């Protein structure tokens, strides 16, 4: 028989007890994500004061006992009594769900914390929370245990602890704020310090210092003029970087950059001064964190434009473009009447749009979006409006310039898709509105419908002027942007075709494979090697020297196209480049799929001379720009053919010694003379691979049992991008200066000739 079910079976959870029972409803999870979300709620409340123009400095402190403290110089939480509850404003804010000043238009026009549950939820999920408010010339204090107000009996008031004896305030008795000091009447602000409750958060929950720094940095971009300081008391005062050191770096960052100085620590002249050190450090209760300075300060004045500049990685195609505007919309909302009742009312809202964007020479997309200062990783109506306006205007510009861009409008396949536009795009999309509608308390997606047409219209008008070049100073830049987008379209179309025709199955019968490819036997995918051979003469020798079971040969004629200077369409029209992409069989650009590569080793086999070295560099440029995962996964190698052959005589007649440089030859001859080993005077010097016979080429360069290969690695992508741009790009003066500056440090052993 089932148990009886009546009214006595019902459980009523009131107030913050419901939060402790179902924390996931309010912070998403009880792991690391939820732990960090609590901190964001407190920080966002302080940032809201900055958005209201009442705060210009926030300090986040990581205490040694595992507690976190957020302090601001805003107006301070109200300390007077709220008429309806008969409680002080501090207790209302920290103990009552859906209570705050952000439900109307008076105190906050645009805020991050909007549901009125942020501070109270953090309070409920903390083993202890202390709040201090500077207001009306006094410092007010109140303490809470798991959301309930009361008094702690700390043995040492300077070192409060959640383990101290706690006396809870009697139920239904208003708690008076304790006045613990006096301040100047002009001094206002709020300080909240809390200890996350281990009874709520699971064992995997870990505090992330890097997430904190990333969040603080992005906030400083979004609220120009707001200074945010992060203090980690777990790091000693006398570390490798003192506060004085940081001030010196800050001063250097603000100084104008001279042509002879190296690139500064930060890209923006208004950016923060601190760059974290390498390595890790044990931060006590916070676990092992990246090594960093004890004090890090962030302040920017350039807004989202500086943010895009900071996020941009790679060579810019255009300057940072700014889209700004405002519009109003009407929204029906529930308004609290004088008697506390709710009623529907049509309210006119203001929507402020601020967008910055640029394209860089790559295919990765960086698009971040915010509502007020809250990041919306899932996007929402503001992002939808931006992308709709962006796509519409770019398609129109491509159609208007179809002849110049060599786009056949009659070909249905030649249509710009959103992926083509997004390749290389770096954008920050922000809107500021009162009472935005989010999908859930974690605020991942904006759901306010009227925002989409507003952002779309503003983007249409302003971006349309930029991309058509009608706005002064944008004509040349818009031309480069359109060329890149059309190039991405061609690459996508070509990649799809390439992917369809470059599978190993029936590869020998495939008409798409270049006729000059001498492929290996199918079935050896895990060990298959592709030799890219310089010249037809070397190809003939290599055919006789290879193991046809797993070694394929593709000859190239002379020096291929320098793809760093060429456009994407020029690269795709180059027969040698197209042949290499087809033979590798994994596509190119953003669609490159390393799992589809037909070979696990791609070996550049060129002559051991300057021309051979140049050809290798051109091939590497192709791999880096359009097949980068080949380098990242260690698939690319350089063969090392010998330069000389020494034929031994006497008792060792028939033996040969190969050397790979003039210095090595001289040293080897001295060694043979010292050991009285005879050798023929006519030492053979190879002018190219074609001068070797098949046995010699196999023994020295192709046979895995005796050859030497050099694997091409890329440990630092940013540095690699700078090197390719410098050495292979269009800008000649920096390359010339680089050669002049480094000529004295030339070391032949560092190059593969």
Give an overview in words.
- The protein is of the alpha+beta class and 753 residues long.
- The protein folds into three domains: 16-232, Heat Shock Protein 90 (2-Layer Sandwich); 304-332 and 346-495, Ribosomal Protein S5, domain 2 (2-Layer Sandwich); 518-641 and 711-742, Rossmann fold.
- Helices cover 32% and strands 20% of the residues.
- It contains 22 helices and 27 strands.
- The strands form six sheets. Strands 1, 2, 5, 6, 7, 8, 9, 10, 11 and 14 form a ten-stranded mixed sheet that branches. A five-stranded mixed sheet has the order 15-16-19-17-18, sandwiched between helices.
- Strand 3 (81-82) and strand 4 form a beta hairpin.
- Residues 101-108, 111-116, 239-278 and 501-511 have low confidence and may be disordered.
How many separate helices? 22
Largest sheet: 10 strands, mixed
CATH class of the largest domain: Alpha Beta
Residue runs with pLDDT of under 50 for 5 or more positions: 101-108, 111-116, 239-278, 501-511
CATH fold topology of the largest domain: Heat Shock Protein 90
Q: Round the Cα radius of gyration to an integer and report it.
A: 34 Å
Shape: elongated
Intertermini distance: 88 Å
State mean pLDDT (0 to 100 scale). 83
- Percentage of residues in helical conformation: 25-40%
How many domains?
Answer: 3
Question: Strand content of the residues, in percent?
Answer: 15-25%
CATH architecture of the largest domain: 2-Layer Sandwich
The CATH fourth-level homologous superfamily of the largest domain: Histidine kinase-like ATPase, C-terminal domain
Structural class category: alpha+beta
How many E strands? 27
